[in-house]
Amino acid sequence: MNRRVGRAGTTVTARPTFCVLFSPPLSLFFAQGAGHQGTARRIVVGQYLGFAAILAVALAAAFGVTFLPEAAIPYLGLLPLALGMKAAWRAWRHRDDGGGEQQTIEGGPKTLEVAGVTFANGGDNIGVYVRVFATAGVGEMNVYAVAFLILVVVWCFAGRFFAPPGHRKHSAGVLLPVLIGLGLLILIEGGVFGL
C-alpha cells in the first residue's frame, strides 16, 4: 500500500513539474489563437500528440528499446528554434504590407507545431519518466500513463487561463522570442555548443 501511495505521489509531483516547464509556450499558443475557431481543440490535440510521443519513447525505453540516443535529446531544441525562426521570417517578409503580424497569427497555432514544441520541450523529461516506469510494474505504468494524460487536460485549462487576455495581436511578437529562446535553452543546456 505504501508503495502505491509513493507512486501516486511521484505521479502527482512529476507531472506538475513537467507542466511548469511548458506553461509559457502553452499560454502564448492560446493567446495567439484567441478568436480563431478550433484553436483550443488544435492546441489540446497537439499537447496530447506531443505528450503521447514522450510517453511512448519513455515506455519503450523502460522496456529496453531506445528510439533516441541520449546525445540526440538536446538537438530537439532545433524544432522550437526552427518554428520561431520561420515565424520571424514570415513576419519580417510581410512587415511593409501591414499584414505581417496578422499573417503570422492567422488561424492560430497548428496542431503539429504544438506537438513538436511539446515533444522538444519535454525531451529532457524522458529520462525521468523512464526511471519511474522502469521501477513500476505494467499495471502501475498504465496508471501513470493515464494519470499523466488526464493531467494534460488540467494543464491545458491552466494554459488557457493564464493566456494574456487581449494580447492576441501581440502574442506573435512574444511567441517568436519564446520559441527561439526555448530552442536555444534546450540546445545550450544539452551541451550542444560545448558550453
TrEMBL record:
<dbReference type="InterPro" id="IPR004676">
    <property type="entry name" value="Cd-R_transporter"/>
</dbReference>
<keyword id="KW-0812">Transmembrane</keyword>
<feature type="transmembrane region" description="Helical">
    <location>
        <begin position="143"/>
        <end position="162"/>
    </location>
</feature>
<feature type="transmembrane region" description="Helical">
    <location>
        <begin position="174"/>
        <end position="193"/>
    </location>
</feature>
<dbReference type="Pfam" id="PF03596">
    <property type="entry name" value="Cad"/>
</dbReference>
<keyword id="KW-0472">Membrane</keyword>
<protein>
    <submittedName>
        <fullName>Cadmium resistance transporter</fullName>
    </submittedName>
</protein>
<feature type="transmembrane region" description="Helical">
    <location>
        <begin position="48"/>
        <end position="68"/>
    </location>
</feature>
<keyword id="KW-1133">Transmembrane helix</keyword>
